[in-house]
Each structure stands twice: as structure tokens, then as C-alpha cells.
Amino acid sequence: MSEKQSYYMVIPAEVWESNLTAKAMILYGHISVLANKEKYCWANNQYFTKAMKISEATVCRCLHELEVEGFILRDLIYVPGTKQVKERRIYLNVKTGHRIDSRPGRKNESRPGLKDDKDNSTSV
């Protein structure tokens, strides 16, 4: 019996409290898992169609929703000297109000709320 590594999705409260569709919220969760190591996700739309069992058109709509609401940034990397896309990178954004706090390539990025935490309790 082979052991499979387990992962969990991080979907912040502000994403849950937004006007996003449920599928867009779950897509955000998938992106957060995949962006964990490199700080960006490079999965293509076909990956998400298989992982979420939804159409590519739905993936495109969900990515658009997430981008319009400011929860992700998409960056296209082109083959030098051409207009051919070599890679797409999806970065997560942490928002406070209407201002976006994190940007791709930000140095010394830290996770909000984890500074000087003594425990993992959310209750008083």
C-alpha cells in the first residue's frame, strides 16, 4: 500500500466573505496549495479541469472572478523575442480593504497574523 501525501487548502475568510462563486473559492484553494512551495502556481487550465471536474470555460470564468476581485495576479512569461506564452504564473494576493498588499517577487514576504503567535487558537 503506497502512502499518498496529503495537502489542505487555505481559503481566507475574506475570500469566503466575498461575492465569488463557490467554484472560484475552491479554485483559490487549489491555487493556494500549488503556490505553497514557489509562491506562485504554474498549473494550466487543463490541470484544474481534471482536478475539479469542471469545464475549461468554467476554469477561465473562475480565474477571471479571482483576478477581478484582486485575490490573484496572473503573469505571462513569453518565449524571448516572440509572443508565444512559455509559462503562466498565478500569484495569490492578500487584501485589506481595497489595497493589495502582496505582489509577485516581494522580498521577505511573511504571512499576516503569524507574528508572535503563542498558540493556534481563534477564540478569546
Main β-sheet description: 2 strands, antiparallel
Percentage of residues assigned to helices = 25-40%
End-to-end separation in angstroms reads 43 Å
Order of helices and strands: HHHHEEEE
Query: Judging from the principal axes of the Cα atoms, what is the shape?
Result: globular
Strand adjacency order, main sheet: 1-2
The rounded Rg comes to: 16 Å
Extended strand count: 4
- The quaternary state of the protein chains shown equals single chain
Residue share in β-strands: 15-25%
Specify the structural class.
alpha+beta
How many separate helices?
4
Low-confidence stretches: 96-124
Mean pLDDT: 79
Verbal overview:
The structure is a single chain. By secondary structure, the chain is an alpha+beta fold. It has 4 helices and 4 strands; from the N terminus they run ααααββββ. The chain has a two-stranded antiparallel ribbon. The protein has a two-stranded antiparallel sheet with strand order 3-4. α3 crosses α4 (56-68). It is globular. The termini are far apart. Residues 96-124 have low confidence and may be disordered.
Task: Give me a quick take on this structure.
This protein is of the alpha+beta class and 124 residues long. Helix content is 31%, strand content 15%. It contains 4 helices and 4 strands; from the N terminus they run H-H-H-H-E-E-E-E.
Keywords:
124 residues; alpha+beta; two-stranded antiparallel ribbon; globular; disordered C terminus
Helix and strand topology:
Elements: H1 13-16, H2 22-34, H3 45-52, H4 56-68, E1 72-78, E2 85-92, E3 95-96, E4 99-100
Antiparallel strand pairs: 1-2, 3-4
Helix pairs in contact: 2-4, 3-4
